[in-house]
Specification:
The complex is a heterodimer. By secondary structure, chain A is α+β, with helices and mostly antiparallel strands. Chain A has helices at about 5-35, 45-85, 90-100, 215-225; strands at about 105-110, 120, 130-135, 140-145, 150-160, 165-170, 170-180, 180-190, 195-200, 205-210, 225. Chain A has two domains: about 1-35; about 45-225, MucB/RseB, C-terminal domain (Phosphorylase Kinase, domain 1, 2-Layer Sandwich), CATH 3.30.200.100. Helices cover about 70% and strands about 0% of the residues of chain B. Classes of the chains: A alpha+beta, B mainly alpha.
Chain lengths: ~230, ~190
């Protein structure tokens, strides 16, 4: 090892200690400034940052929901392939296994019926929303509507025979409402930033509407679905 | 434009981010205002810093107050300096770009704790972008990829800045030695 290399190693070792020392010094100097109550940010900044936090949380929940819904749709698709070859007991076991894997989710079962023959779309959407994507997983169709401020509405539809819906019940209140003459299950978000889910069955199709928009708007969209 | 690639995964994260704001927003605001000399711009910097903080929330351990404060301060300072640079077309990072290597500062004549204090003093006089990247590397043990994500710069830029920071530190030590020698000769 050359003298130059030795000196580099010694310098680096000392630099590591010195950087930690400089950091501690700077933080303690900052600590003495914190007692000063003057020159604080405006309340608007707090609102702005709160909105950022809420938006991030909402997007993360939406992403989780979309991912989960996609996985479930794939599972259901696979399950029905197995059903045609297997007995009812096997089918139940598979469904239970899928459901047990999803903690914090509420299960909603519907009776069997005929398959979806066309895609339903809302004739009413709250102002500013437009369709941004349509994804098909087996028999399930998921349509996403977005707005410039990042708010989203997800409409999922599948044949009632596909059986089970899973709803994220974290921070939601459950109630039954009426949508176009049938009973719908509404899991409304506990706060304005929580996601609400409306589930109902009509004409052999199970519909799920998910969003952070108001429950009145959600029901209005649900009532407006047409093929 | 702010890219919203954020990660508040649950209520705990939400509470954590809110707590960071409650504890450090004033410090962050003052630091940004000290650089930008404008309250509105300083608030923009804090807001932008929060996007970055949310994106790196898993690296923050609220129980270590000093490190948490250091982390948010580094982020807001970097953003404020960047805003100032964009405004004034002012590029402070090029201060030390003319040289790639420099001779070694003489530290062997000093006791190790004295030498470390001398380096820490020199570090405090460096461009903040240099000291901050050294903090992230050494105090926070961040990889170059992590530093790139925290500061919103490329990995190559991180490598260059780390190299320059080390050289700038040596340069500062040499400058102080020269001043000391000159003062001694007078």
């Amino acid at each position: 090892m050359t003298e130059q290399e030795k000196s580099e190693i010694i310098f680096d070792a000392m630099m590591k200690i010195a950087v930690r020392e400089a950091f501690e010094r700077e933080m303690s100097e900052l600590g003495s400034e914190e007692a000063d109550e003057t020159d604080k940010p405006s309340p608007e900044l707090e609102k702005r940052v709160k909105r950022l936090i809420d938006k991030s949380y909402m997007k993360s929940k939406m992403r989780r929901y979309m991912k989960l819904a996609g996985k479930i749709a794939v599972c259901i698709c696979i399950t029905f392939t197995i059903i045609s070859l297997s007995v009812r007991a096997t089918r139940n076991a598979i469904f239970n296994a899928i459901i047990e894997l999803q903690e914090k989710y509420t299960r909603v079962d519907f009776g069997e019926s005929e398959t979806v023959t066309g895609i339903y779309r809302p004739t009413y959407l709250p102002e500013g929303f437009s369709e941004t994507s349509t994804v098909k997983f087996g028999n399930t169709v998921m349509i996403k509507y977005s707005k410039a401020d990042d708010a989203e509405i997800v409409l999922s539809q599948r044949p009632a025979e596909s059986g089970t819906s899973l709803v994220d019940n974290e921070n939601t209140d459950y109630m039954e409402v009426e949508v176009s003459g049938v009973t719908a299950y509404l899991f409304s978000g506990s706060s304005a930033n929580d996601i609400s889910t409306l589930i109902w069955q009509a004409n052999g199709t199970v519909f799920e509407l998910t969003s952070t928009i108001s429950i009145d708007e959600l029901i209005k969209i649900g009532k407006s679905l047409k093929k | 434009m702010i890219v919203l690639a954020m990660a508040i995964k649950n209520h705990d994260d939400r509470e954590k981010a809110a707590e960071i704001y409650r504890l450090y927003s004033t410090t962050m605001f003052r630091i940004a205002k000290g650089i930008l000399h404008d309250a509105h711009l300083a608030e923009d910097a804090v807001s932008e810093a929060f996007v970055r903080i949310i994106d790196n929330l898993e690296k923050i351990n609220l129980s270590d107050r000093n490190k948490t404060k250091g982390f948010v301060v580094i982020i807001v300072r970097h953003i404020a300096i960047d805003m100032l640079r964009r405004q004034k077309r002012f590029v402070p990072l090029d201060d030390h770009s003319d040289y790639t290597e420099c001779r070694e500062p003489v530290l062997s004549s000093l006791a190790s704790d004295e030498a470390c204090s001398k380096i820490a003093d020199a570090l405090a006089k460096l461009n903040r972008n240099y000291s901050d990247i050294l903090y992230l590397k050494i105090v926070f043990n961040c990889s170059n990829d992590e530093i790139a994500k925290i500061l919103g710069i490329s990995r190559e830029n991180v490598n260059v800045r780390l190299h320059r920071a080390r050289n700038a530190l040596k340069q500062q030590l040499l400058k102080e030695d020269e001043l000391y020698d000159r003062a001694g000769k007078k």
